[in-house]
Amino acid sequence: MTQIEFKNVCKRFSEKRVALYDVNFKVKKGDFVFLVGKTGAGKTTVLRHIYMELFPDEGDVLWEGISTRKMRKSEILKVRRKMGIIFQDLKLLLNRTVSENIEFVLRLSGEKEVKPRIWQVLHNVGIVGEAQVIAGELSRGELQRLAVARAIVTSPEILLADEPFGNINKDDAIEILKILMNFNSSGSTVIIATHNVELLGEVKKKRVIEIDEGRIINEY
Ligand SMILES: Nc1ncnc2c1ncn2[C@@H]1O[C@H](COP(=O)(O)OP(=O)(O)OP(=O)(O)O)[C@@H](O)[C@H]1O
Ligand SMILES: [Mg+2]
């Protein structure tokens, strides 16, 4: 089933700055997708369209066949609750503990049994020993793991990961990739935006969408 479709999507931030130019692609439920391209190519802009922080100037982004431009605010919020997002700048609560960072999103989602869920997800990403540490004191690799944990703890139907391997070493990056693959194997779609093409070889069953200067230049 097609979950997300970009149909002739154009986006410009100003007269001169065209961020996306006639972008077309489809993502099926359960796909594992790498959205690759160098810095400024338009990866984050694509993800922001998927989580409906941005809307196309021309063309459509369709979520399960419905144009995001035609959704009401209440529908947008409902669909967004099905998404887990790892932001490029992480957006963690740095003055709160690791555990509190997870608890915050669980409470928002209406989950009552928070303690076991927190323990399980921190265990899954390998930072259960850091549960009571203030997030601001974590290493970069640990912060990335916390951002992954926070994004997957609500079991979203789709996970959007914006440069989840930024500023970490290759071993840590592979560990994070494995966590994302494992999450995908439960049936959720995973879209990873990254310039790090070195890691593509680590995943067998995947899709690759390559973007350059706002245009899709390669897809397989
Ligand atoms: N809010 C904005 N206002 C103006 N221009 C923007 C804005 N956001 C992005 N752009 C421009 O759109 C283009 C695509 O940016 P985007 O952030 O999507 O790239 P990216 O592929 O995510 O890059 P990176 O790998 O550095 O994260 C760039 O030229 C960028 O300068
Ligand atoms: Mg980006």
Give a written overview of the molecule.
With 220 residues, the protein is an alpha/beta fold. The protein has one domain: Rossmann fold (3-Layer(aba) Sandwich). It has 6 helices and 10 strands. The strands form 2 sheets. It has a 6-stranded mixed sheet, with helices on both faces. A hairpin with a 5-residue loop joins strand 1 and strand 2. It starts with a strand and ends with a strand. The model has no long low-confidence stretch (mean pLDDT 96).
Q: What brief labels describe this structure?
A:
30% helix, 220 residues, 6 helices, binds adenosine-5'-triphosphate, alpha/beta, Rossmann fold, six-stranded mixed beta sheet, binds magnesium ion
Q: Write out the CATH superfamily name.
A: P-loop containing nucleotide triphosphate hydrolases
Mean pLDDT level: 96
Shape: globular
* Helix percentage range: 25-40%
* Structural class designation: alpha/beta
Looking at the overall shape, the CATH architecture is 3-Layer(aba) Sandwich
What is the H/E string?
A: EEEHEEHEHHHEHEEE
Work out the number of β strands: 10
Give me the CATH fold name.
Rossmann fold
Q: What is the number of domains? A: 1
The molecules bound to the chains, other than polymers, are: adenosine-5'-triphosphate, magnesium ion
Report the sheet-strand fraction: 25-35%
Oligomer class = single chain
Individual helix count = 6
Radius of gyration: 17 Å
Which sequence of strands runs across the widest sheet? Answer: 6-7-8-3-9-10
Just give the CATH class.
Alpha Beta
